[in-house]
Each structure stands twice: as structure tokens, then as C-alpha cells.
Specification:
199 residues, ten-stranded antiparallel beta sheet
């Protein structure tokens, strides 16, 4: 669906989810995608919330919520995708009190996306028991992709603040965990994205 009026043609894309992925070893388990939301093509507002979640105590969180909105203002499309996870714990090695992904996108006719990650942050982030400082600098809206990569022995690779931008779509992932030995699998925390068409 779309909007076609005298001012032009608009079609929105916006989505968010708080947690998802899979475990391959020691047993095959899908991680339920937590509080997924998707924006209608005509824009609008949608939100979802979940209380405590746990997968065999390997992956757990205290609560999570997501929000996506989209609107047309004069000659531009605005999309906001937000995801929040509280009380995160992955294998007792990746922990955070609060993780927030806030992706703001503006689309002007004939121009590239304008992207902002202001409001995204990690509160009380600990990797293998070690606290990490302010990670806002790992998210650079001016780059096609960015993020901090941390290797944790006996856990795997953790990518913090991954931002991907194309001409028509942007995606922000707070945490991407690529788990190695002894537990293998892939998990994302706070996946937000958006874009659209303006003609």
C-alpha cells in the first residue's frame, strides 16, 4: 500500500525487534523473535512489549519493548525505529542493564537517507565481567557500516553498534553475538531498520 496525492508518492518501510537468532550447539534451538513490529506502507505507529524471556538460561532478559513510527511532513518522510532491552544476559558473558537502539531516518525527494543514532546507548554493559565505557562513538552515521568488534575467549565474536546504510534503507543492531565454543549460534539484540520511497 502507498499514498499517492498531489504532493507525491510515499511508501514507508520500518521495523524493529528486540531479540532473536538461534543456537546450533549443544542443541538446536530457535530463539523466538521478541516483540517484532513492522510499519504499514502508508506510515503510522506501532509498538510491542514483553516481560521476562529466557531460553534455557542461555539467553535471557527482564523486559523488552519496540516502537516504529512513520509520517510525511511536507516534502519529506520521517521514520523512527526504537528497541529497548533491559536485564540482558547471554551466557553470563554478555550482560547489560539496558540497551537502547534508536534509529531516526529522514528521506527527502532525490536525496540519500539522512540517518541519526542519537539516543542509542548501552547502560552497564559487561563483556566477560569487564565493564565498558561509552560506546556511542562506535556508531558513525556517515559510514556505510560501522561497529566495534570484541573477541571473547570461549564465547565468540561480539559486534557492538553495527550500522548499515544504503541509498534506500538503514539498519542499526545494538549487539550481534556470533557464538563459538562450547555454545554455537548467532544472536542479535535490538535490530531496528527503516527507509522508504519518495517520488
Amino acid at each position: 500500500m502507498s499514498v499517492d496525492n498531489k504532493e507525491g508518492f510515499y511508501s514507508f518501510r520500518g521495523d524493529a525487534n528486540a531479540l532473536g537468532g538461534f543456537i546450533e550447539e549443544p542443541m538446536r534451538r530457535e530463539i523466538q523473535t521478541l516483540v517484532p513490529v513492522s510499519l504499514p506502507a502508508v506510515g503510522g505507529f506501532t509498538t510491542a512489549r514483553s516481560e521476562a524471556f529466557s531460553l534455557d538460561n542461555l539467553v535471557r532478559c527482564r523486559s523488552a519493548h519496540t516502537l516504529v513510527s512513520g509520517r510525511v511532513e511536507r516534502d519529506r518522510i520521517s521514520v523512527l525505529a526504537t528497541s529497548v532491552v533491559e536485564g540482558l544476559n547471554i551466557l553470563d558473558a554478555i550482560e547489560a542493564e539496558r540497551v537502547v537502539a534508536r534509529l531516526s531516518i529522514e528521506i527527502l525527494k532525490g536525496q540519500k537517507l539522512r540517518v541519526s543514532t542519537v539516543g542509542s546507548y548501552f547502560l552497564g554493559l559487561r563483556l566477560a565481567g569487564h565493564h565498558r565505557g561509552d560506546l556511542d562513538n562506535c556508531i558513525d552515521p556517515d559510514k556505510a557500516s560501522s561497529g566495534h568488534v570484541v573477541q571473547i575467549p570461549e564465547v565468540g565474536r561480539v559486534i557492538l553498534g553495527a550500522l548499515f546504510v544504503t541509498d534506500s534503507y538503514a539498519q542499526l543492531v545494538s549487539i550481534r553475538a556470533e557464538l563459538g565454543c562450547p555454545v554455537k549460534g548467532k544472536i542479535t539484540v535490538n535490530c531496528t531498520g527503516g527507509g522508504g520511497v519518495h517520488e
